[in-house]
UniProtKB/TrEMBL annotation:
Gene giving rise to this polypeptide: pabC
Cofactor: pyridoxal 5'-phosphate
Molecular function (Gene Ontology), one example: pyridoxal phosphate binding
Organism: Halomonas eurihalina
Protein name, entry field: Aminodeoxychorismate lyase
Family membership: Belongs to the class-IV pyridoxal-phosphate-dependent aminotransferase family.
Keyword Lipoprotein: no
Length: 280
């Protein structure tokens, strides 16, 4: 399902990436982490100076998804107008939405994923850090670095060498008994699942180089649509293995909490999994 006509040629979101978006998991017409999505959209609107659509209009959208599992995508642009980069004097924001059926990847939940480091580095721009704005060319080009279907994601650093995120997911790890995630004060997207887990578990936001993962007991990628993927192999940008992890209890504990927030199943554990996580 889709709402609205085609985007005009002079729409500022199309021309300049002047806008925001949200991707929301919807189950039988009920949105997961809806208040967190609305809070992030509101922060973005305030930062960019775009009028927030009415909550009544937004709150009515998840029910339009109908039965089953789907993803509701909201795109909000500043609308049309202005000369060049100059803002229009009386902007009329343009909201578009679409619902698409969705099926997660359970094999990635249970078997874990292989990821790689990306060559591309994210630019540092604190003013936009944390927002889910429409300027995503860096992520597009990073994702273009590999075509191997066995590689699920790529890890991104900023231009000063600090870990930030994956191309479309947030990054978490457990080191010396502490749960940590990259700080996002310079760039990156503050995911709604990330924020929920950070509040619930006191996950520490840290500035760290990629080498921090070599001392991690467990590593995960996650977002509010796909859930939490445990990482079982990390490659460098040339495809050489950097680290391997055996999946075990530590991976499943955080995954269970994340999946409870999203309504996804939890893993009861396999006979082949270790009680303690060891790096292999």
């Amino acid at each position: 399902m889709m709402a609205g006509e085609g985007v005009p040629f002079d729409d500022r979101g199309l021309a300049y990436g002047d806008g925001l978006f949200e991707t929301v998991l919807v189950r039988d017409g009920v949105a997961t982490l809806w208040e967190a999505h609305m809070a992030r959209l509101a922060r973005g609107c305030e930062r960019l100076g775009i009028a927030m659509p009415s909550r009544s209009a937004l709150d009515a959208l998840p029910a339009r998804a109908g039965k089953g599992l789907g993803v509701l995508k909201l795109t909000l642009t500043r609308g049309s107008g202005g000369r060049g980069y100059r803002l229009p004097e009386s902007p009329a924001p343009r909201l578009r939405w679409r619902v698409t059926p969705f099926a997660p990847s359970p094999e990635r939940w249970w078997q874990g994923v292989r990821v790689r480091h990306c060559r591309l580095a994210l630019g540092i721009q604190p003013y936009l850090a944390g927002l889910k704005h429409l300027n995503r060319l860096e992520n597009v080009m990073a994702r273009a670095e590999w075509q191997d279907p066995d590689i699920a994601e790529g890890l991104l650093c900023d231009s000063e060498g600090r870990l930030v995120e994956a191309t479309s997911m947030n990054l978490f790890w457990r080191r010396e008994g502490r749960l940590e995630t990259p700080g996002l004060t310079r760039c990156g997207v503050a995911g709604t699942l990330r924020d929920s887990l950070c509040r619930r578990f006191g996950i520490q936001e840290v500035d760290a180089a990629p080498s921090v993962l070599e001392g991690a007991e467990a590593v995960w990628l996650g977002n509010a649509v796909q859930g939490l993927w445990p990482v079982q192999r990390l490659d460098d940008a040339q495809g050489q293995v950097v680290m391997r992890w055996r999946l075990g209890r530590l991976h499943r504990e955080l995954q269970a909490e994340a999946h409870a927030l999203l309504g996804y199943p939890c893993h009861a554990g396999d006979a082949g999994e270790q009680d303690e996580d060891d790096k292999a």
